[in-house]
Amino acid sequence: MRRAAATDGAKLPGDDSLKRMIRLWINGERRPSDEYAALLARTFGVVQVHTGGDSTDGFLDLLARAESSVDAELVDRFEAQTQSLRVLDRRLGARRLLGQAEAHAQNVADLVQWAEFGAVREGMAATGAEAAALAGWLALDLGKASDSWRLHNLARALAVEAGDTAVVAHVTAQQAYALLDAGRTSRAVKQFEAARQMAGTRVPGVVRSWLFAAEAEAHAAAGDTSTTLDLLDRATAALDDDDVPFVVLDSAHLARWRGSCLARLGHPEAIQVLNDALNRLDPDFNRAAAGLHADLATAYTVARQPDAARHHAQDAAKLSAATGSNRQRSRILALLGAEREQVQ
Questions:
Q1: pTM above 0.85, yes or no
Q2: InterPro entries per the record (predicted)?
């Protein structure tokens, strides 16, 4: 190959790289590019022939690979990989996982576009939507709002392809957190509301509960106490024990959410609700714990208890550093600034 390449003055990678490429070609794991196909033809002294059944861009080859690999078992394997990333995220945080999660989501999305229409394609699209939404949430946690928005757009497109109302509503609402973090509260409220109305009563109860609570958080940011409390009550009423992989919500998490909303509103009940939620929180949820401590710092700041506020802000800072959550770190810095102003 090197002698053949020398006739054109082409430079090839090192021997180890070439050997890996050759193994991939032999095993059918990768197709030689047009340049390498021409080089191989010169190497072996044969005429390069393109059959009439395929174009030079490998269209039929791509179709054949998708048809032979995309099946119900592969959908299950990808879903299991997404779930594994979710579990790791709870403990390790976004910093260590974003690249892996984004590559996983893109891999599934690429396969969807070549898959045959039908139940398997829809299942693969739903799996890809969940994977892209997870990657989008990780990006938002790292403060990469533009990447988060893009990944959620991909997630929603895949969810629509899958025809899964619950997934469409979930990724639409989750994307709105980028707006909320950017201070576009009124626009975020509209998107949360649209997602909840889109779902209606056609989705599992745990998803409806999540959508009510998410919308409540946006109304709390807008300072609308009455609507916030009403939505939180509706979230509690809708909660059931349906098993939905992309939503983790039980009474303890819902209590944490209620406490967070109350803290935003400066409600005196927030401290008790948040402390109760902290005692019930699964210790594996490190990022959630960081948010809880940040909410408690907010509540104690409003209650003019600076020592308690500082204690929880420090706990939140430690957990945020461990998980790499720039989103929580920004909240904590704002809290510490508010505390200094209060003291002055």
A1: no
A2: TPR-like_helical_dom_sf (IPR011990)
Which residues, in sequence order, are CB contacts of 79 under 8 Å at separation 6+? 127, 130, 245
Looking at this protein, which amino acid is placed at residue 121? Answer: R
- Residue 296 pLDDT level (bands cut at 50, 70, 90): confident
* Cβ(126)–Cβ(158) below 8 Å: yes
Per-residue CA distances from 166 to 126, 175, 219, 240 (Å):
10, 14, 22, 15
For residues 311-336, average pLDDT: 72
| pLDDT tens per residue, range 23-44 | 888 877 788 887 888 888 888 8
Alpha helices for the chain (secondary structure H): 2-6, 15-26, 34-44, 59-69, 72-92, 98-114, 119-141, 145-162, 165-181, 185-199, 205-221, 225-238, 251-265, 270-280, 286-302, 306-323, 326-343
Query: What is the predicted pLDDT for the residue at 55?
Result: 47
Cβ atoms of 169 and 207 closer than 8 Å: yes
pLDDT tens profile 67-119: 778 889 999 999 999 999 998 887 777 778 898 999 999 999 988 988 888 99
Neighbours of 90 (CB within 10 A): 17
- Exposure b/e, 52-72, CB count within 10 A at least 16 = b: eeeeeebeeeeeebbeeebee
Nearest to 147 by CA among 138, 155, 139: 139
3-state SS, residue 163: coil
Contact by Cβ (8 Å): 13, 39: no
Spatial CA neighbour of 210 closest among 239, 187, 233: 239
CA dist 68 and 116 (Å) reads: 10
Q: Which residue has the tokens 């920004």?
A: 330
Q: In the block, which residue shows the tokens 């745990």?
A: 206
